[in-house]
Design brief:
It is a single chain. With 527 residues, the protein is an alpha/beta fold. It has two domains: 133 residues, no CATH class; 335 residues, Peptidase S8/S53 domain (Rossmann fold), CATH 3.40.50. It is built from 14 helices and 14 strands. A seven-stranded parallel β-sheet has the order 3-4-2-5-6-7-8, with helices on both faces. It has a three-stranded antiparallel β-sheet with strand order 1-10-9. It is globular.
Amino acid sequence: MNDMIEGCLDSLRKTILFVAFFAVGSTVVFAQQGDWYNLDFEDDKVRGVSVNKALKYLEGKIELQPVVVAVIDDGVDIYHPDFEGRVFINVNETPEDGVDNDGNLYVDDVHGWNFLGNAEGENIEFETLEITRLIRQDKERFEGKSASDFKGKEKKAFKKYALLKEAYDEQVDEIKNSFSEFSQFAAMYSGANSFAREKLGRDDLTVNMLMEYEPADEGERQVFDFLLMAEREGLREQLEAGSEYFDMALNHHYNFDFEPREVVDDSKLGYGNNMVWAANPDHGTHVAGIIAAVRGNDFGIDGIAPNAVILPVRAVPGGDERDKDVAAAIRYAVDMGAKVINMSFGKPYSPEEELVYEAIKYAESKDVLLIHAAGNDGSNNDRVGNYPDGTLGKRKPLKNWITVAASGPKEGTELLAEFSNYGKKKVDIIAPGVDILSLKPEGETASNSGTSMAAPVVSGVAALIRGMYPELSAKDVKKILMRTSQPVGDTMIMVDEKEVKLKKLVRNPGVVSAYEAVKYTHEKYAP
């Protein structure tokens, strides 16, 4: 392979990886390798969580009770065939009659609620980042000023603004630099593609066409070699994904002039609408599938918990979620009977964190287990904020809260995913989060990676435990999951180009195990 071509492709791969993992909670698509998280380490030689083995163990021993699992996310395609019979139904609400039959202030919330829309059916798909919103609210007051222009509280506020603006500028510069490099490769690919189509007289190209063509000179050979490698690497799809990412980042996430919130009237209780599938529910559908996709139907995938009932709560746009929406979503999920809440989202700033803290405390008072993704920055959550924070700003996480890092299928230094956040104080456990096959809208499947995928693995196992013995508390379930995880603490992980033992990176250095969890639970609590 020509060194120039390989060098270009290597640079493009790095740019694509930057695109994929820049934002907390984002995912990246890889080649599908199946729902390996269902597999067992001893039997299948991959670090799955032994779901198939766990369910086989339970056969004839106990009948799992239904458990409502709320998925606070960007929505769920509740009409996906692999969710048949697995979506929450509010039996106290009459569908589409425009009346709040059950008196909970949410009109026609038959299958859940969407906090990112209005009664007219308008919905938010994209949002700014929290850092953009924080700077925008003080931009007119502080821009072009210096610390010497202020005193007291105003001076303190200015210094905070200056730090945020510095971080914002660094992030935007990084994205713009990556976009410039990305654009060059995109142009190279487009030009090479056009050249080859003209030479071959075809509107489309296949690998066989490219291989069979006899280049007239070295220049043509390089073009066709580049296109062959691009086709084999799937770079066309990656370029499309990259183009969408940069458009979202520059025109939405970091754009001071972009303000979609006017769609939502959050001045009153019950704001939003019942369109839980609104906009593009790609992420939430994938998350929900891991937890509850129908097993054994020869379609889609096998979800973890056959007793899980998914309650979709839409509160996470394509950008940073708003604290008010997160707090409202948690409270709504609790009031609708969720016993497990999955939260595969997060952000580094939380200006109204007290609203979220109060909602988390409310969930705690109602014995609800909350499971949160650690984030995808490869950073230490003990040092860098990742909200919501299940420690409520204290030293230890709540007893009904689990923060999940992502693991891969292989042993060794790759066990903890390179992108996964960690933290000895604030990250509790690890679960499969690399190349996770699950559902996507309109009856499809796809493989994604991220701690967004690891959290629902834990949520699914938690639903199994709560379905075995409903009298077990959220605190009990957390203890069981931590106690029965597969110990991997002595595994050496590469962090900042140094090898560190996993037990120094996570509170409980183990991979969650469905089999060990259900076996322990049954042996301990069976009458």
